[in-house]
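Worked example 2:
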Amino acid sequence: MLLTVRSRLAGHLLRLRIPTLESLRVGDLISRVTLDSTVVRNAIGSSVVQLLTGAITLVGTIAVMIYIDWLLFSIVIATVSVAAGAMLLVMTRIEKASTQLQASVGAMSADIERALTGVRTVKVNNAEDREHEHLTELAEVAFAAGMRAARLKALGNPAMHLAVTGSFVVSLLVGGVRVAHHQMELSGLVSMMLLAMNLLIPVSDLFNGSVGLQQALGALSRIHSTLDLPSEDVDDIRRNGAEPASTTCAERADDGDHALEFRDVRFSYDERTILDGVSFAVPPGGHVALVGHSGAGKSTVFSLVSRFYDPNGGDILLAGRSYVDQPRRAWRSEISLLEQNAPLLFGSLRDNVTYRQPGLTDDDLRRAIELAGLADLVAGLPRGLDTPVGEHGVLLSGGERQRVALARALIRRPVLMMLDEPTAMLDAETEQALNVTIQSVRKECALLVIAHRLSTIREADTVVFLKEGRIVDTGPHDDLVARNGDYRQLVGAKV
């Protein structure tokens, strides 16, 4: 059960839509896979067994008691039923307290993940004590929720013991009177008393099993709410389990087709218009730069090309094929994205370079490394490609991370390579070296670049100038400088 729940949750979380993931906390989602699923496992492993064995024993005991003397049985069952009714009220409160406990632990996990991810920021701002106090407050909230559940459970067992013991005393008094008046046999009374005391075991099992089940229901509600979150097209992933074989851009695009084409694309987010009738094209082997002020829509273009979102109107074509006709996985196998912060995964250089295609041949691996300018770095490391990069690649410099990410992006020989200002965090020398490397990438695929630095903009064949979600001008950099004052001012501000 634990394996099934965790497998389903992990698979679903990886397939959630980007807008959904952006509204959630990663640490809380992790706690649902680890902690909540363990609570459900405990319920399946012990609580359900207690409920089943307790129910079978209770039914058998009740049947024998009714057969021996229904009057004494009525006294016993009436007393126990009153206590059981009170316990049912307690159960609902236990489920609520358990749900609060799981939620508070999830919140604490999320904030621990936030603090550790940004631990350098925490330390440089001397915020360790403040973060510690905040995490302690969250731990206290979880503690309080756990104590509420523990108190309710602590009230239950003594109450059930008291009810069974009380029914035994009352039954003994009534049965003694009946034996004295020769209304029942002494052997029958002894049997009833033994059975009445035996009720304590199944009743306790039922109570403890119910408590565990209520706690599991609280965790299960969080698991179900996670599985109900909207995911990307599952059929796309199931139908396209394997990526297509590596080919060149020219082999995948029909003659005359652009590597990428936007046709009157419109997109709104939270009723706010981001792109309004955007049309442009990137030819095979071309190099197009997206330029504009913050909020102009450049990152949204990348998100649409990556199929993180679908446009509200218009059409996007990759190698002549519309996004409407292409499953997400097949579409994404034709593109690569080099993000500005070049995130690397914990592991070795080899793990990161071959992440997109783990079974990469040595020749293809060597090609990507040389094309990305990583050969000298790999040769100078004692462990070569097996050198660890650390969490998020912290053991490498910014330029080295960019090159590793570039090699990873080149593995599939994509139709289109998207680069989000790849030189923004680099020094001038490293920037110049990476620009030379990026230009050599044009032999492999078309380039679409979000550009802020003048040196990056000048490398492009065509500049697309975006302003408030619209294309206000397009053409070579020198032409735009000569004829467009807004563009000249923007570029001048970045020199």
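Strands lie at 260-269, 272-282, 287-291, 313-318, 321-322, 335-338, 416-420, 446-450, 462-467, 470-475. The mean pLDDT is 80.
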